[in-house]
Design brief:
Two copies of one chain form a homodimer.
Chain A lengths: L32 H15 L6 H8 L3 H13 L3 E3 L5 E3 L1 H12 L2 H17 L2 E8 L2 E8 L14 E3 L4 H8 L3 H8 L15 H14 L2 E4 L6 E9 L6 E9 L5 H26 L4
Helix pairs in contact in A: 5-9, 6-8
Chain B binds a DNA duplex (30 and 30 nucleotides) through helix 1, helix 2 and helix 3.
Chain lengths: ~280, ~280
DNA sequence: AATGACGTTCCACTATATGGAATAAACGTG
DNA sequence: CACGTTTATTCCATATAGTGGAACGTCATT
């Protein structure tokens, strides 16, 4: 049993007996066979900075040309991958379609939506909804004042859990053993001078957050941006996430964030109550 | 060679010698093996109206329990699928992450963006960017006045090509043989009383559109909504799409749309020029 | 025109997905 | 509350489907 990090998979066991016994398991998930290799390709294309052509892919993936070619062909046939006019690869449009459904079909998002809107009305600042996915927070929704900044710039994006309000709030909803297991795998990159430095600092911070029911991001991810956040969770904690009110520090003082804490906490509590009702044990 | 419909796959041939010789090929893509089965599962979950539990999936997919279970397990491990608290399946968050990248990394969208904004400034109405994907239009971007309507409600969504402005514009950029091949596969559902009834009507309409360089949707998809659209394309027509200005007919008269036609055509021409420069043969 | 790099196809081989059956867990019901 | 029934999960021999080396096109480069 490799790691006890994932507890949202209790229903379906995912670790199968490791056939390739001494194989290097870098980071990527318990053997998912052909599918795993396929999404590995997608991942490379998704993560890539510069345009990736066949040769570039080959270099990163390390598969022989014949094999890679077929994998890529299949992905293209399925619409998950595209060839740009300049023969570089891009993610396929089918992923957009899937995501549109994933988003609109997401029960958490649906339930949280009105509460986010209310919170935005009350504060006038940007409100986020995010859920924890392993070591990252994925933003599911966003309500903001000026539409100038595009919604898509955030939705679906992932940020580290240890330096965001939503991330720390989400972690605070997990049992400490679980947090410790995850923390051990975190690469604590120092984004700003306020970024938490290590697992110990995170653990201490989380204790405070649990006590208060509120998490602050004090410019820990991006200089000049801070936020108040509160945790939300499903009845069995298989999902944990959070909501936050984010603002630029030059305009909104820390004191103001603290003043909003009650509203944020209340909104989160309301969401949790709704979740309990609509997704609870006896839903 | 089964069908001449897909010409955006010339670079990578996707039809492999059919091992299962007399197999029924309903509609889904030329044998993509394990991957194909996996996305078939995703598709079922995505398309599903009611919540799908294991049993429901099994019924639709028609795979034996053991097999389906492993496929589902793998999808879950990869984050492409999730189990909701009520043990129904939903699309995974990883799809959101991929989509965020697919969107921000899309060259077409990137190039078109400023032109869409300009067109919106000029008209004050909602502007769309969509690309043709087989028989459907997938919306890549949207600029609208009131932010009340959520962006996500459209982005990534697919609409039929035969009853939307963008769709008809896109088709008009394809060679007639190609259009005919696709038209033969279209199910001409009568969304409104103005919806084109069959392939012949579509063909005639497309001739007009080609001549004018402008397509109208005269409440053909949704009653009370009409639009002006113009085609855009890549140098080799491997991608075709369109941009449109959409408005409710009660507020904006047809005459006004016709008045905007020149602007729409000009914007599309500008996008095409940009594409030629930045994605052209000698990019 | 010749060279070389890159991409694609082919086919014997074997790793991997398959599905039937057996097991376990959840569910409803008398 | 125990029973039968439905639904989900595990296991394993088998065969299918993915693999990768090598041979073949194809395009750019000198």
């Amino acid at each position: 049993m490799p790691s006890a990090g994932e507890d949202m998979d209790t229903w379906i066991e995912q670790d199968r007996t490791d056939r390739t016994s001494g194989a290097k398991r870098t980071r990527t998930s318990p053997d998912t066979g052909t599918l795993g290799k396929a999404v590995a390709v997608l991942d490379v294309v998704a993560q890539a900075e510069r345009p990736m052509r066949f040769r570039d892919l080959r270099e990163v993936i390390g598969q022989p040309p014949g094999t890679l070619h077929r994998q890529v062909s299949n992905l293209i046939s399925e619409g998950l991958l595209q060839v740009n006019p300049d023969q570089s690869y891009g993610l396929g449009l089918r992923l957009l379609q899937f995501a549109a459904r994933a988003w609109s079909g997401n029960r958490f998002r649906e339930i949280a939506e009105p509460h986010l809107a209310a919170l935005h009305d009350k504060t006038g600042e940007t409100v986020h909804l995010g859920v924890l996915s392993d070591l990252e927070v994925i933003y599911l929704d966003k309500v903001e004042s000026r539409q100038a900044v595009r919604m898509h710039s955030q939705i679906g994006n992932a940020s580290p859990c240890y330096c965001t309000g939503v991330g720390k709030a989400a972690l605070s909803a997990l049992p400490t053993e679980d947090v410790e297991a995850r923390a051990a795998r975190i690469d604590f990159h120092r984004h700003t001078e306020h970024t938490l430095a290590d697992a110990a600092a995170l653990g201490a911070e989380l204790a405070d957050i649990r006590a208060a029911g509120i998490a602050y991001d004090r410019e820990e991810h991006e200089t000049g941006i801070h936020c108040v956040a509160a945790p939300i969770w499903s009845h069995d904690r298989s999902f944990v996430g959070g909501i936050s009110v984010t603002a630029p520090s030059y305009r909104i003082a820390m004191a103001q964030l603290e003043h909003w804490a009650d509203d944020v906490r209340a909104a989160a509590a309301a969401i949790n109550a709704d979740i309990e009702i609509r997704l609870g044990p006896r839903a």
